Amino acid sequence: MPDHFTAVAQKLQPVFVPAISDSTAILKRYWKWSVLTAAIIAAAYISLIVTIDNTNLGTTNGLWKSPVVYAWGHQGDGPLDSGGLLYAPVYGIFTRLIPDSWLQYGTPAADLTFRKMAILNAILGGAASGLVFLLAIRFTASPLSATAISLIHAGAGFVLLNSINSEDIIPAYTLFLGATVCFFEYLHQGGIPLFAASALLLALAALFHWTVMVPGIAAIGSVYAALLTRGRRFFWAGLGWLFLFLVFLQVLVLAAFPLRHIPVWAVLYPGKADAAGWVGFFGEKGWNLVVGVGNYFAGANNMTDYQAAFANASVFRLMIVSWAVLALALGACLVTMARRRKPSAVSLLAIFALTLFVVGEAGAVYSQPQDPQMQIEPMFATIPGMILLLVPGWGLGSVRLRKGLAGVLALAGAANFGWNVHLMRSGIGGDSKAIAAIAELNRLFPSNTTVIVCHGFETWTTWQYVILWRNDSPGFISKSIHLARAFTMNRGIRGAEAAAITEERIDSALASGQRVVAAALWTEPAEKSVGTYTTVTTQAQANTYDSLLRNHYRLATRWSTLLGPFVELLPAAAGTGDGQ
C-alpha cells in the first residue's frame, strides 16, 4: 500500500510545479501594501455610507433581504436563498456583532441590519481592491502601477456602488478575486496549498452568490486549455481542480447545513437559475446589456429603461467613457494574445480576462444585463486589461513611459472615483427620507383598507415591505399589486395575458371593498411606463400591457406625497374617466 501511494504521488507531483517560469516572490515584499490599500479604501467606503445615508443606491435587493439576514443573526435560522446559501447565515452572524449604537445616524430605524450589511460590504469591497493590488504587483512588479490599478478598481462605478450599498454581490465577488489571485500565484509558484485555495475560494464564492461560479470556472478552465500545448499534465491539473471544487462545494454545504440534505447539483443549478420572467433572451436585453456595460466604470446607474439612458445626454456621455475603457482593456488583451502565441504569464491573464468577459456577459444577458450585480464580475476583465498595459515589455519599453502611464491611469482613476461619488451624493439622505415617506404612506393608505398598485421596482416598495410588513411576504403581496410581476412570474407571457392577470387582481380588490391606489402607469406618460418593462418583456408586449390597463379604469382622487403622485383607481364602467 505505501508503494502504491508513493507511485500516485510521483505521478501527481508534476501537476503542482509552477506553470510559469517567473516565480519571483514579489508578493512577499508587498503584501503589507495590499493590506494598507484595502484598509484605506474600506475606510473611505464606510465614511461614504455614513455621510450619504443611502444604502439603496442603484438597488434595494439588499434591503429586501435584510429581514432574513436579521432572522439568521438573532434567531439562528431562517429561509435560504438557493442562489446564495451562505449569504444570509454568514451575514446574519456578522451583522449581529456590529453594535446598533455605531450606526445611529439620520432618521432612527427599529432595525439597522441594512446599514450593517453595507458596512460589511465596505470592508469586503476594500479587501477586493487589496486583492487587485496583489494581482497587479505580480504582473507589473511596480508599486506605483499596482496602486493605480487598485484605485481604478475601487472607483469603478459598479464596484463603488456595490461596496457602499446593501446589495449581496460583494462577498462573492471578493472571494472570486481571492480565488483569482491564488490561481495565478499557483501558476507562478506551484504547490498544493495555492491549488486548493483557488478551488476553495471559488466554491465559497458560489455559495454566497451562484452567478459568479460559471464565469469563474470558465475563466480558469480556459487557462488550463491554453496550457495543454505544454503537456498533458495540465489536463489532469484542470480536471483535478474541478473535482476539488465540487468536493469543496459539497463539504461546505454539509458542514453548514447538516440537517437540510442539500446535494451538490442543487448548488450547481439552483431553482433561482430558472426564475420565471427574470431570465431568457429577447432583443431588448441586447440594448440593456450595452447600457449595463456602459455604466460599469462611470455613472453607475442601474437603468431599467435603455431608451431613457440613450436619450439622456449626461448619462450617454458617461457611457461613452465606460465603453472606451472596456475597448482599451479588451484591446490590450487581444494584442497580448496575438503577440504571445505560446502560453506565458501575460497571455494567460489575457485569456482569463476575455473568457470571463464573454461567459459572464452571456449569463448577464440571460438574466438582467443592466443590473450592477450582474456586471461586476464580467466587467472585472477591464482590470487585467489595465494591468497588461503596465507590464514591462508589453509595448512601453521605457520605465519612464510606464511610470508616466501609471500616473495618468492613477489620475483618471481618482477623477472617476470622485465623479462617481459626486453623482451618488445626489441621493444623500435616501434612507432617512424613505423611512419618513413610508410613515406618511401608512397614514394616507392604511394597509387594512388599501391595496397599492406600483411598478414593483421602486425603492419605496422594499422599504414598505421591510418596515410595515417585516418579512411577511404573503401579507405584503396580498396588499400590493406589482405591475411587473405578471411578467416576472410568467416567462414568455404576452401583454394581453399579463394585463388580464393584473386586471383580475385589481378588480378583485375593488370588489372586496378595498380602496385601490396606483403609483405607476396611470401617474406617468405611456412611453415612460412602457420603457420600464423592457427588462422583462419586449417593447411590443409592454405597449399592449400598458394600453389595456390604462383604459380599463377611471381615475378619482389624486394625492401628492413624498414618494410622488398617487391616484385612486375605479372601475371604468362606474362612469366616464380620462383613463390617462
Give an overview in words.
The structure is a single chain. The protein is mainly alpha-helical and 580 residues long. It has two domains: 2-426, no CATH class; 430-574, no CATH class. The protein is 64% helix and 5% strand. Strands 2-1-3-5-4 form a five-stranded mixed β-sheet. Residues 575-580 have low confidence and may be disordered.
Care to give the gist of this entry?
The protein is mainly alpha-helical. It contains 26 helices and 5 strands.
Please give the structural blueprint.
Blueprint (H helix, E strand, L loop, with lengths): L1 H11 L13 H27 L8 H15 L11 H11 L15 H28 L2 H13 L1 H8 L5 H20 L2 H17 L4 H15 L5 H24 L7 H5 L14 H12 L11 H6 L1 H27 L5 H22 L5 H4 L6 H8 L9 H26 L5 H15 L5 E5 L4 H11 L3 H6 L1 E3 L2 H4 L6 H17 L3 E4 L7 H6 L7 H12 L2 E9 L2 E8 L9
Parallel strand pairs: 1-2, 1-3
Antiparallel strand pairs: 3-5, 4-5
Helix pairs in contact: 2-5, 2-6, 3-4, 3-21, 4-5, 5-6, 5-7, 5-8, 5-18, 6-19, 8-9, 9-11, 10-11, 10-16, 13-16, 15-16, 15-18, 16-18, 20-21, 24-26
